[in-house]
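Please fill in the sequence for the structure shown.

STRUCTURE ENCODING:
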């Protein structure tokens, strides 16, 4: 059976149904459109995210399977727990989103081409200003040594990227995010695509159908805007 890749209209915000996503490359569901906040909100509300490199057109994805971290599945091994107990790091929420995404775009450990290009940075900064994109920062005194950012639609949080400059700083950011979301009984974080680091933290893959069922439950879970106010965690 042949598969057809949708090209998004510049004005129409609707995405094709998930069953139209390609099997190869896995989850590619559409191309084109733009990174306007309205389109991004529509995408994330439907479990779709943009991901592309400088040489590509704008690509949209709904992979099958989908990597998620259920709140109760977070793995904190003994050495990490000892580190957390003794850590002098300070963790904050939405204190410096711009710096987090900027460092993520050029993280020192990343040896592949970044997908966080200037137009992506601008788009997610707009999403942050509108209250949809959020960051966790890990500080050693006044130095930003780790962090992560993602997009939240009500109770649905889709992680985009993270970084570390010091030992365990990205892990501490993830633990802080889990603890924060647990305050609202949010059940999982969308991690999009599995990798060895995420797997070591307890991330598992589920089918696209199972993901979408969980995802829509969280999209419909009300979370007041004040929950994301900048503060020390």
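FILLED IN BY: designer on duty
SEQUENCE:
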């Amino acid at each position: 059976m042949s598969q057809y890749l949708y090209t998004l209209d510049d004005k129409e915000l609707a995405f094709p149904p998930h069953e139209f996503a390609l099997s190869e490359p896995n989850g590619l569901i559409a191309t084109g459109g733009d990174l306007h906040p309205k389109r991004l909100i529509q995408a994330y509300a439907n479990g779709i995210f943009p991901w592309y490199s400088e040489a590509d057109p704008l690509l949209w994805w709904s992979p099958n399977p989908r990597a998620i971290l259920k709140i109760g599945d977070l793995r904190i091994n003994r050495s990490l727990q000892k580190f957390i107990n003794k850590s002098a790091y300070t963790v904050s929420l939405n204190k410096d989103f711009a710096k987090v995404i900027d460092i993520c775009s050029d993280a020192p450990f990343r040896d592949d081409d970044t997908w966080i290009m200037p137009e992506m940075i601008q788009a997610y900064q707009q999403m942050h200003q509108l209250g949809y994109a959020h960051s966790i920062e890990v500080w050693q005194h006044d130095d930003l040594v780790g962090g992560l950012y993602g997009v939240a639609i009500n109770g649905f949080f889709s992680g985009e990227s993270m970084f570390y400059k010091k030992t365990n700083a990205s892990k501490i950011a993830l633990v802080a995010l889990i603890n924060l979301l647990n305050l609202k009984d949010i059940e999982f974080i969308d991690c999009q695509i599995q990798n060895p680091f995420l797997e070591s933290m307890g991330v598992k893959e589920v089918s696209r159908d199972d993901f979408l069922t969980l995802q829509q439950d969280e999209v419909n879970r009300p979370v007041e805007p004040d929950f994301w106010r900048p503060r020390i965690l």
